[in-house]
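Fold these two proteins, one after the other.
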Amino acid sequence: MIFELMSKGTIVRLPDDRTGLPERKEVHVMLLLPFNRYILGTPGIRRTDEWVLGKLGSEETKEVFLYDSRAVVLALGDNGSVTLSRDVVANLRSHLFSQMPPPGEHLPAALIVRSLMAGGAPVDDEVVKSEQAFFEALDKDEMSRMAYWGIRFALSRGDYGAVTRVKTWLKNAMGVFEDGVPPKAWFSLTDLPGRKDITEMESYSFTLDDLQRMHSQSSRPVVLYSKTGYLILAEQPVDNTETAFRIWMYLPVQIWNELREKRKLSIREIVAATWGYLDALEAVVERGRYASGLQHFSPVNGTR
């Protein structure tokens, strides 16, 4: 796919068959920039995206990194720079992902999910080995399919903490979050979250004073009740560092009562299970960006 950056900062699609452009892999996205520059996106080793900035007529390229939530400034040598907006960056990445299979490997994720499936007929080894047959066996088990994508994506990143969280949700809290008001989570490295996140928390009847009071407590997790539900403050260490980031998690009263009073989960188990559900929900949305495959279904109620 080939695009051109317009003077207003938008991009337009060009015909794919164009001479004079650099050789490229079959799966690619190219954006033509001013002064004969371009950026080229191709699949990486782990089925993620890789981008380089180059100049037509030259073989020299420089690696650049694109993130959906950020604009990017590209240096064009003596000709200054050009800025790609967040929308343009997300658009380019989505076009590349739409040509790629989803990351991760099927079998490791399928084996983990099979070991956690509750009830129903067992899935035999031959079915597990085939992605198509596996999803046919889980035709009516939407939660297991959600867990599959959450675990598959986490394994592809080497994020074993996320694998544990999804397993905790599937084992201890499956079926809790799908109806009514969904849970919500915010994350911060600072003492308090950003202004936008605080505003969201205030919509659940938690004030800035409430958050400051929770943060002042020396032991974590901390739980605070309001008329709409419960707010939990927990901490998660960053691997191989002394740093920890903060998890602010909102649970409606109905969900809290089910997890805490009926299922007797600890606060840490509640955090892990809820976070695992949100991980799986996010993975379903992320999977939708990749090439059409065997599995399509709409995410259930929830937000992050």
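Now the second one:
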Amino acid sequence: MKPVLIIRTGRAPDSIRARHGDFPHWFRISAQLALPKLRVVDVAAGESLPPPQEVAGAIITGSAAMVTERAAWSEHALGGRVDYLPGGREIGTVPIEVLAQAKQDALAARLPASFRAHTTHEQSVLEAPAGAVVLAQSVRDPHQLLRYGKHAVSTQFHPEFNADVMRAYIHRKRADMQREGFDPRHTFKQVAATPIARRLLSHFARYHGLAAAR
């Protein structure tokens, strides 16, 4: 079987990576993919992507880089508009509301009406690309889960995070949160397990035949 590609667009902060590992490891565990059949390409470091026909599918990691920085590796062709989320960053374990149109979606149809997910982001999709279908939202962000055609979805929340990783990000961002008027202690206490959000990656992998790499 062809390898599953993990497109690395950044790295977890040193303090978090030392204790909890890094993005490719988190995605591998959550998607339940076999290590021998994975290929990691670090596009932020200038590594080139293989031809699409050489891989079974791809997962793109998150990044601390801002879309508005317009780094060469981050430019995309889907359209839409990304900028800073009104009201400041969204961080912590938050409820995600699944929208009515998700009932017709091959991946999202199995989701409950709402579920918890871990979030940490300053920028977000402010206008979805033409043709994209919005499947889920949070109170702060109306574009938490989007569908782009038959084979591609994106999440604003982090299905690859576990609760310990979420707490580590809150701890690291506590000074920024206080400066922006958020209470990091309250946010820290609200962190909880997010089994439904985490299963989304394994469901995606199985639906597209990627989990067969196990």
